[in-house]
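Workshop exercise sheet. Pairs work together: one partner reads the sequence aloud, the other fills in the structure field after running the prediction. Swap roles for the next sheet.
Pair: D.N. / O.F.
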Amino acid sequence: MQNKGLIKLFALLFGLVSIYQLSYTFVTSKVEKEANTFAASRVSEAEEGYVAKREMIAASYLDSIGNNTVFGYTNYNEAKKKELNKGLDLKGGINVTLQISVKDILKGLANNTKSPVFNKALADADAASKNSDDTYIELFFEAFDAIKGDTKLASPDIFATKSLVDGNEITPNMPDSDAKSVIRRKIDESIVSAFEVLRERIDGFGVTQPNIQREGNSGRILVELPGARDIARAQDLLSSTAQLEFWETYKQSNTSFSTFLIQANEKLKEIVEVKEPEQVKEESELDSLLSDVSADSLDLATQVNPLYELLIPANPGSNAMFRAAIKDTATIGSYFRMPEIRRLLPADIQFTKFVWERPSSEDTEVIDLYALKSNRDGTPRISGDVVSDARADFDQFSKPAVSMTMNTKGAKEWEKLTGDAYSNQTGIAIVLDNKVYTAPGVSSGPISGGRSEITGDFTVNETKDISNVLRAGKLPASAEIIQSEIVGPSLGQEAIDSGFMSFLIAMAIVLLWMIAYYGKAGAFADVALLLNILLIFGVLTSLNAVLTLPGIAGIVLTIGMSVDANVLIFERIKEELAKGKGKSQAVADGFGNALSSILDANITTGLTAIILFVFGSGPIKGFATTLLIGIITSLFTAIFITRLLVDWYIGGKGRSLDFSTGITKNLFKGINIDFLIKRKIAYVVSGILVAVGLFSLFFGPGLQQGVDFVGGRSYTVRFEQPVNPSEIASELNTVFGSGTNVKTYGESNQVKITTPYKVDVEGIEVDTEIQDKLYTSLQKYLPDGISKDAFVLGGVDDEAVGILQSVKVGPTIADDIKNNAFLAILGSLAVVFLYILFRFRRWQFSLGAVVAVFHDVLIVLGVFSIFGKLMPFNMEIDQAFIAAILTVIGYSLNDTVVVFDRIRETLAERGWKGGSNINYAINSTLSRTLNTSLTTLIVLLAIFIFGGESLRGFMFAMIVGVVVGTYSSVFIATPVMFDALSKKITSGKE
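Structure field:
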């Protein structure tokens, strides 16, 4: 081998750089451990809310020492930016996919036009989007073109608005083709604006290593917040539109509202069914207020009154119009939205906008309802775009508040609004995202300068978030969370523990196996393997890549692949030694002859990993990343580092290096199996297995599709004691309706709950509703006194009781995931077919490889269909399963290509001879095939047993795939290739 000095230098530098990069992770881990110890010493577990208090103290500690030098070359703040990134499944946190509403952007561009053609096109696009993969804007254009008649997009009542015309964006009645280009550009600009707004908000949220990415032109934005603990706060921050508005309120004494209320109450008696009010046993703030109302002089308590029994008089002196119990707000709101009720509003208040107060805390039972002075278009006096700056502050009573500064235009409007409120003795309601935060009166005349303040019962975090949102600006359209994954920190720690346990066990087994099988040569392969692992982690850190639990599985699988390269080399060296060559020549020829097989095998696996990276997301992309890095580093260490060590050893005087031990020296020697003559038996066996699997897939139980593919929500919930999943399922089906599935997930005190309940409805409100229902329904299985917050944030401490993980996938994105999975599998098969055709020059080789892969995939699918409900672990079909299928494809091809390489080499030397030399080639690779397969199988079993529940289905698919793939490379791929060849070729006449 030439350039040994250069390779040594490169390996040394590469290793040192990797150690240096990983040292930052060691520094942050050390400092954060010290911070947590310090926090634990200050706050006892007996204190209420001790977890949150400890987090605050730890964060304060880290802030105070962030710039202190550690080990003389870095500090915590610098190291934190360079540490190894851990994914949500290892660190906990939230991962969401936001869908920016293109519909909202279109309505905004058209200035909320009332055009029937425009609104019909929107409605048609809404309907089409449920069953189409096209973008919303293209669906809108198709719908518009179908119904437009003589109407143009650039009509004055659609997109030829004053702002677009004045900005020279659109000219009246311009051709639709030109208008479409402008609209597409404006929508893209709006999505970019949304992206920047979200990035600003996230930067102000305070998590380390956040990730935000646009997903093409789909209007989707991926956001990852590793380590985020306050999930509700994060969700609010991401989905809040930040629609800040300033309105003037009506006075309580306005008699028009009394008239309206009486008429509305009478009208509702005719159109709604009202139940008799239930007697409340316990006295509370709400009961006290209701008892006061019942004593009203009108004596309405003995009647059935839809509105009077729900509305409570507002506190005198406030600027609210009414009060009501929070549980009744939805009902009251639905009444006030009824067209027949709206028509009862007297002329002087006909455009009134009713808005509820923001609840001050979770314990609040009663909130105010404000009547705001509006207009025909429903626009506020002042909107939030006049706010030039906002910051968290404290009011005159030292309570948290938000201070705002307005631009010149806003300052003038603010002065006029405050002047009107002063003259009319009304209030100014400050409304954020359709909730009244405060509605103060004006006691000293018009306020100039454009400075204002939002006060209320805020926490410091809330004022930080509100000011952050206002400063970053409002989203140009609503942002719905269409996919989310929330992982509790304790589950993340368990994943780290189980992942590295499987990693260490697999590593130990492989290291010992190589020494037991190849002796000293195996020890050299082990050194190369250890360097390989170091390089993988070093590259991951250098690239700022994210390590996930499937990523750890990818690294462990790389161990098996690294061993495969060394096994190929050592087996070829043994063959060269058997021919009587000297040690140096045998080593040189062994490395040279094995190179072609090693490269072909790794390239085919690498191609499937690239496809997995392109079509996968989240943790699966992490698996593909580590697999790709592992392939490159494995090639380097196996081909160059092992060679350096072997050459160094045999170059010494009196040193003998056998590539076997006493037990393995003659293993597999003299084997001469006629594989081709047994191919018909193999065809029958494989045909039966595939047929049984297909029958089960189409006529039997079929595959259990996870929420990734069908949409819905799933929750991993842990209890103190073992529970009966059937009993829980029965109770939850009465709450959520049929379709809710509950099964044991790991230990007997842990279940996975999957429900399609309101899968088509977006919004945090639905997530909160489901959490409430789960908390209420599962009360009897939970520890006494556990709060809803503790249940929802389960796993924030060592007890880890409650929701450890939740996943939500909307139906639209589920369809996209399913389509991407299908494309990934087809794409990998096509790419591999072409690669093998390019390498082996005969389509028959490609056919044999692809048939073998189809055979393997169908058998794996059949096994999952037949045993899906029988196995004591999760066997749902999800993105992880698709990753397993693609890995099986790569592994099966790896095996097949090694066999084909030997066949090609043997045929070039000896000719076809009716297939006898094909048998010879297969027999000569048998030791490598079985050795590698056994090693990989042991590695996969280690991950399956010790790698954690979330990886079991993934690993089971790969275990079945490795067994079947090893069999198919010998008994399916080669025979199919042989049978597809003409007799002229196999007889050597062509």
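Discussion prompt: The first helix runs from residue 4 to 42. What would you look at next?
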